[in-house]
Amino acid sequence: MWNSFLLPPFTHLYLVFFFLLHHLTCMVSVESSSPYKPIDYILLNCGSSGNSIALDGRTWIGDENSKFFPFEQSLNNHASLIRQSPINTQVPFATARISLSTFTYNFSVTAGQKFIRLYFYPASYFEFDRSKALFSVQAGPFTLLSNFNASLTADADEDPGDTIFREYCVNIEEGQRLNVGGNSIPPTKDTGMFRAWSPDDKYLKEYRMFFLPFNNTINLSFTTVPAYAAPEDVYRTARTLGNDSVINLSYNLTWEFPVDSGFYYFIRLHFCEFQPEFVQVCDRRFRIFIANQTAEEDADVIVWSGGNGVPVYKDYTVSMFTKERDNKVNLYIAIGAKLEGTAYRDAILNGIEIFKVSNNNLSGPNPDPILVTPPTIEPPRQSTDSKNSRRTTIFIVAGGVTGLIVVSIFGFLIFRTCKKDKNSCSYDIGKSKHSKASSLPKELCRRFSLQEIKTATHNFHEELIIGEGGFGNVYKGFIGEGTETLAIKRLSTKSKQGLHEFLTEIEMLSQLRHVHLVSLIGYCNDDSEMILVYDYMTNATLRHHLYDTENALLDWKQRLEICIGAACGLNYLHTGMKKPIMHRDVKTTNILLNSKWVAKVSDFGLSKVGLDNTAVNTVVKGTWGYLDPEYARRQQLTEKSDVYSFGVVLLEVLCARKAVNTKLQEEQWNLANWARKCIENGSMGEIIDPYLKGKIAPACFKVYLEVAESCVREQGIQRPTMKDVMEKLVFALQQQIEADDTMEKTNPNGKHTYTEVLSFHVTGSAGFNNVLSGHVLESDSGTELTWTHDTELTYPSLGPDSVKADVPTCDMMD
C-alpha cells in the first residue's frame, strides 16, 4: 500500500512518520513493561543525505538521494532546495527542504491507521524569509495543514520554544497532552511512542489547585488499558478537589483550552485511584463536565478500572461550532464533587489528551500576527449550516481496550452525527406531551437536558428553592462546569400557566438584550418538563427588600435608582424594538436585583407584542392590585397598561406595603386607590414607609409623588409614557442628591432629617379606580371577562400573587 504525502509551494519541513497497528486487540497482549513496537517505523530527515543519529538515540533517514526522495510538480529541476539551518545543529532540525512548488513523498506501508508527526524549526534561511513560508500539507484525502505559517504559530505560543510539531492519527490531530498534577514528560520517557506530556498548570482556572504527591510505591496493573496508553508517571500523579468536603461542593476544578472553532474534538481523560483509602465502589463518585455540558453524572474510577492502582481512560467527542467566525473558542473540562451517594465528596483526574477530529480537513487558522504579517488569505466560504448558533454535542465513546479502535471509525460516526443533527438547535416542542403543534424558532438560546438541570439543582432539592411564583418554583443551580450560578424556574403542575407562557418567555427574552432586562440563558423541555434558566440575581426581588422581610431595608436613594433602572427596562420594551412589547405583569416581585443592586425586569410569560400607537384586543391577564382598570374593562392592551402597573410599584416602594392587603380596613385594601385618596386629602405623609420619614427631601418627594399619581390615573390617555416616567424619576433623584449635599454643608456633623411631608396635594383627575374593589375570580379558561353592576370582575390572574377566592376572606398577596 502506497501512501502519498503532498506539500504545496514554499514549504520547509522535517518529517517523522510513526505508524500504529490497526488491530488493537493485538496490543493488549503487550506486557506492562514493554513499550509499543510499531510495524511501520519511518523517521525521515528532510534536506539531509545519509543517516543521522539524534540526541535521543533514534536514527533518521535523509530524504536526499533515498527511496523517499520527493517527487516535484515543477518543470524547474532546482525548485526544491536543501538548506542548512543557520542556528540549530540538532537532528532533525539541522537541515530543511524548501520548495516554491508542490512536492510529494510516497511511502509503502501496511494497511491500517497511521500516526504522523511533523517537525518544524521556524528560521529564515538565505533568500527565504520565514514570515512568507505559507503552505499546506495533505496526507491522502486529509488536509493536515492549510495556509500554515510555522513562524506565526511559534511567535504566538504562550510558551515559545525553538521548535514546534504537529501530530495526526489519520483523521485526528493532537491538540493537548497533559500530565495532570505532575511535571513534564519528554518524548524519550514516553511508552515508545515519543509523545511529549506537559504540566497542566497554565490551563487551570481555579486559584485552589490541590494535587496529590507523586506515588512511586504503588504497583500499577495494566489490566484494563494497554501499558502504552500513557506513561506510568501520568497515573502516579493527579489533581483532586481537596480534603474539605464543604468547600469541595462550592466549586469545580476546571481546565480551559483555546481550540480552533468549527471542528469536533476527541477527548481522552486518564484516571487511576492510587490513594489507599479509595478501594471500593462509591468511595469517590464525582461529575465530569465537557464544554459546559455534563459528560458523566456518576463517574467512579473503581467501577471503570476494577480496583485501586489500575489505570483506565474514558473517551468523549465534542463539537465546537460558533455562530461567529471566531478563530478560537474555549473548551472547558471540569470535575466536581457529588452531594450524595459517595463516601468522599471529591473528584480526581490524572491526565488529559485532546485531539482535533477532521472531516478530511484538520487545518485551523493561523494565530494573529505579532511582528510579521503574512500574505492575505481569503477565508473559505462557510456553508449555510455554519451560521447556526454555537452547538456543543458530547458523545461518550467506549473506553478501555476498544478506545483506539473506535477512533478508526470516528470519521463515519461524526459524519452521521453531522447529518443527523445539522439543525439540532431547533427543538420541536410539538413532541412534548403538553404541546399543541408548537415549535421554537431556531437560534434562540441553549437547550439544556433534564439530566443537566437535575444535576444543577441536586434533583430539585427543596433547600435550593429561592423563590416561588405563578409559573412554579425557582431554584438556585450550577450549570456546566459549575463556574456560574444560575436561577432555574420549573413549571409547577399546579400552575395556571403552561406552554404559551413558556414559549413567550423564550421568544421574548431571546430577542431582547438590555442591562435592565433579565437574561435568559436557556430552557429545558424534556419529559414534559418546562424549565427556564436565567442569570442568577444575588439580591432576589425588589419586594424582598421593602417589607415583611429579614433583609436590610433599602434607603431612599437606592429605591430611586432601582425604580429608574426598572423604568429604563420597560421603556426599552415599549420603544426599543420595531414593535412595542407590553409586559402585562409589572410588579415588585418581577423586578430583580443583581449583586450590584442593578434592577432587571423579569417574567415575560404574559408579554404581548403590540402595534404602534394601537391598542391590542386580548384576554385580560395580570396580577390583582397592579392590573390596569381600563385594560380590565375594555380588554384593550397598550403601553399605558404597564405604566399603571409601574405606578403601583412606585407607591409600593414609597409606602412599603402590598398592592392589595385585605387585612386592613376596606378602604385601604387597594394601595392605588388609597394612595390617591390620601394625595387628594393632603395626608400622603401618613402612609409612607416609617423607615423613610425624615429622609426624603421635599423637592424630591413632590416630583416622585406627581409621577406616581399620574401613572395610576384611570384613563390611559392621562398617563405619561415610560420615557417621561424615567426622566422625571431621574430628576427626582437629582433633587434628592442636591438636597443631601446642601444638608451636608449646613450640618456636616449632624443627623440629616427633613421635615415630614404631612400636607401635599397633587392635581389630577377626580375619578377613582374602583374597578377592583369588588370580588375577583380567576377564570380557568382564560377567555372571558365579565363586568357587572356590583363591580364583580372575572379574569385570568396568572401571577404569583393571584388566588381563587372572594376578596373579604383572603389575603390576595403572597
Structural class: alpha+beta
Radius of gyration, whole Å: 34 Å
Number of domains: 4
The CATH architecture classification of the largest domain is: Orthogonal Bundle
Residue share in β-strands: 25-35%
Number of strands: 41
Basic shape: elongated
Low-confidence stretches: 1-33, 73-79, 368-443, 763-814
Q: What level of helicity do the residues show? A: 10-25%
CATH homologous superfamily title of the largest domain: Transferase(Phosphotransferase) domain 1
Mean pLDDT: 73
CATH class of the largest domain, anyone?
A: Mainly Alpha
Distance between the termini: 78 Å
- Tally of DSSP helical segments: 14
User: The biggest beta sheet, please?
Assistant: 8 strands, mixed
CATH topology of the largest domain: Transferase(Phosphotransferase), domain 1
Brief characterization of the structure:
The chain has 814 residues and is an alpha+beta fold. It has four domains: 1-170, no CATH class; 191-369 and 386-425, Jelly Rolls, CATH 2.60.120; 429-535, Phosphorylase Kinase, domain 1 (2-Layer Sandwich); 542-808, Transferase(Phosphotransferase) domain 1 (Transferase(Phosphotransferase), domain 1, Orthogonal Bundle), CATH 1.10.510.10.
